[in-house]
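Would you mind giving me a polypeptide sequence along with per-residue structure tokens?
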Amino acid sequence: MNINTVSGTAGSVKSNNLQLGMLLLKLRTFIALFLVVVYFSIMAPNFLSMANMLIMVKHVAIYAFLAIGMTFVIITGGIDLSVGSIVGLAGMVAGGLIYNGLHIPFMNVTIYFHLPMVILITLAVGIACGALNGFLITRFKVAPFIATLGLLYIARGAALLLSDGKTFPNLVGSEKLGNTGFPWLGSGTILGIPLSICILVVLGLAAAYLAKCTPLGRHIYSVGGNERAALLSGVRVNRVKMFVYMFAGFCAAIAGLIIASQLVASHPASGETFELTAIAAAVLGGTSLAGGRGTIGGTIIGALVIGVLGDGMVMMGVSTFWQMVIKGIVIVAAVVVDQFQRDLQSRVALAED
């Protein structure tokens, strides 16, 4: 037998094995979701009940809102540690506007806004927080980790100051003041589908379209792939970064509104550690912490994995402390697998050459 033929066959087998490994890595989120669903279906008999599914999808929606915004940030090579605190601040802003209204001292009047205006103001607060992150990162060249860590404390402190650390309860509003309807955001349905899921579908489709079908989406990927090359090719890098952090703040504000509405109350501690869950969901979904790679669809599947894992452990009576340990292990494992995927991609490229 010709030695070159044997060598070529061996090289072809190696290339096929590498490509199979790459395929499995790309499908890892679906595989993980399938495995956790099967496991908890066996271990917790009521896991697949309609009541539990309804609760779980609501939890997943919260994680997915945050993870969608986080995905764009990570694709650019950044990180946002402040989204959990923005969730708490957004809930407190909405709760304060409904419960106490907006007091204007020098006019000695209190304004109570209708629900649409409450929502718009709350979303504006989230966007403003994101803009502050973006401004610090682009104008003052503060590292994203430090800038967003600072805003984490600022937003959480502001949330506490709004009520002196207390809860705004019973956010049903008053017909006389014209600010009713807030609980509908968290408990309402459209054609039998929870409103939070409907909002998630719209946001997810819009984000996916932006990422894949618009110049801005291409610029987001190019900034994460090679910021210097993107700058030289005419991409307005600072504007792209401003957008992704503002979008992350917007997504966090939506999550804050939904949580406060579901509880019909707002608490300044809402959203604690949610930033870690958002990062985990994005990375599980295939978003690379090195930047330049990630999909919205993958992120939503990653949020499903996190949601199923969390609810499944609760149903099995797993200690809260162990839940934290397991979630930490999931985050580390996701980063390790991401690094392994990058290494394997390099090996596949070399094998094909």
The longest strand covers residues 102-104. DSSP finds 14 helices and four strands in the chain. Strands lie at 102-104, 109-111, 189-190, 193-194. The mean pLDDT is 90.
